[in-house]
Description:
376 residues; alpha+beta; Thrombin, subunit H; Pdz3 Domain; six-stranded antiparallel β-barrel; extended
Amino acid sequence: MKVVQKKKNNKIIIIAILLMVAWFGIFLLLNTYSREQVNSSNYKTARLESTNYSENVEKVEEKSKNLADVIENVTKSVVGISKLKNTGNSILGSSSESQLGLGTGIIVSTKGYILSNQHLTGEKYSKCYVTLEDGRSFEGSVVWSDVDLDLSIIKISAKDLSAVTLADSNSIRVGESVYAIGNPIGFEFRRTVTSGIISAKNRTIKLEEGENQSYMTDLIQTDATINPGNSGGPLIYPNGEVIGINTVKISSAEGIGFAVPINVVKNVINGFEETDKFEEATIGIFAYDKEVIPYLTSINPNFNKGIYVARIIANGPASKTELKEGDIIISFDGREINTMNELREYIFTKKPEDEVTLKIQRGKINREITIKLGKK
């Protein structure tokens, strides 16, 4: 009995000792932690309402102000375009504007050249009416147009205009911020600005107008709101540089609009800027990107790069060579070509009578063909 009582007492003593050790350890820990918290030499303090927060707010406000300034400056280059002349007053006010703007264009040269959509301005030699940001109105002449690109250039008799800066549309990235500017639903809502991002690039869309079908390739897709009157207006970066020309939207869905990349027409603009004319060369073929082929059910070529020659125009430059329908054009003058816009961009650097060397693939055979370009 004494042995059991002795063991019980020993157990109580051990537990008491353990509790005392634990309490002493906790005391030391709390004491040490408390000293570290009040020892100013070990850390630096800063209030939540520090100057860093104010600086960040100022930076955001400054960025917004800069963006507003940029967009305001770009809108000076945005014009209203119509095929009709209106002699009445604005339906929402008493202004005496003499033009009815049903579409949009942008000034790309101080010499009076304006870039827009071909479906808006009409074909080459057509006439249309242009209203500038300051209210002045001019009759414009279409000096160049391309139905496949849906682009046109108009000339008006005005000088010292505010022209936009053109970006490099080949370097765009999905997710970048963009802004669309145009005259949606007519001139009353002129120079409306909408924002969005680049949703995708190198898009191909099918257009159905009556019984006619056509395809537009290598387009920039954006979710910036684009309405019918935005046709011909610029799609710009936050720095104000133009990356594309708004041209079409998906009517059955929201937030799906498309713009033609600006690079494809740069050489045409430069030609008018430098010499007031542009002699357009042609190779005389109809060709398609790889992305377009799935739309053409009667054609099923197998190729990884290049463009597919679907038709050779009779009596055109290519018809006088060994180039055949079904050939895959891999390169021009050693320059790799994978899209029709790349082909157009390169051809726009050439003149009629210039010679180009094509590298083609025909089945398992590669060969080179030289073609003398014609005048379009």
